[in-house]
Design brief:
This protein is α+β, with helices and mostly antiparallel strands. It contains 8 helices and 4 strands.
Length: about 190
């Protein structure tokens, strides 16, 4: 409706889209870095068996090639890489089944007792809705549009800057994981859980 046109959009749920976009769509002309040089000690001097160290960074800079469409993109000052709106990844898990990351040296009892590692976007969303009525009109997916997730504190706070919107995306769950799959479906539609 905004563009007065029929636009097909495909939602891609994997990281291979980035590889596809940058490798195949804007790959440009092929370029090979090559150099013809004389080894140290060749010619009139006898070889001593020493070799010159390779400067890989300088080799890359010397072989840097920008194809015509990249030049135009840079001349017109179009953004090279941009993501808007910001995307907040939302976790989905059954009760006490959240993913907990820990270091190999940590004691398992301290990891289990550590409360902040158990906090996820889902558990804190449920806790926030239990204690406040501000976000009860929003679904789990809509919550990042009015609230911000602070990973350091593991908490949701009400958004103060609405100029930079954010959207929520829930991890994909295969239908064979029935209970988690149905929970994900409910979280997409049910408000104020």
């Amino acid at each position: 409706m905004t563009f007065h046109a029929h636009i097909n959009v495909e939602c891609c749920g994997s990281n291979t889209l980035i590889k596809y976009l940058f490798k195949y769509i804007s790959k440009g002309t092929h370029c090979v870095a090559s150099r013809i040089s004389k080894p140290i000690g060749s010619g009139s001097q006898k070889s001593t068996g020493t070799s010159q160290p390779v400067d890989e960074i300088q080799n890359f800079i010397d072989a840097l090639f920008i194809c015509p469409h990249e030049v135009c993109w840079r001349i017109f000052k179009f953004p090279i890489h941009h993501r808007e709106p910001a995307v907040q990844i939302l976790t989905v898990h059954l009760e006490n089944m959240q993913l907990i990351k820990f270091h190999e040296q940590q004691q398992l009892t301290s990891v289990i007792a550590n409360n902040p590692t158990k906090k996820t976007t889902l558990t804190e969303w449920l806790r926030y809705n239990a204690s406040s009525s501000l976000g009860k009109k929003l679904t789990y997916l809509e919550f990042p549009s009015e609230f911000v997730w602070y990973d350091a504190n593991k908490c949701w706070q009400q958004r103060t800057n609405f100029k930079k919107p954010s959207i929520g995306r829930i991890y994909y769950i295969h239908p064979s994981y029935e209970e988690a799959f149905f929970l994900r479906m409910l979280l997409c539609h049910q408000t104020g859980c």
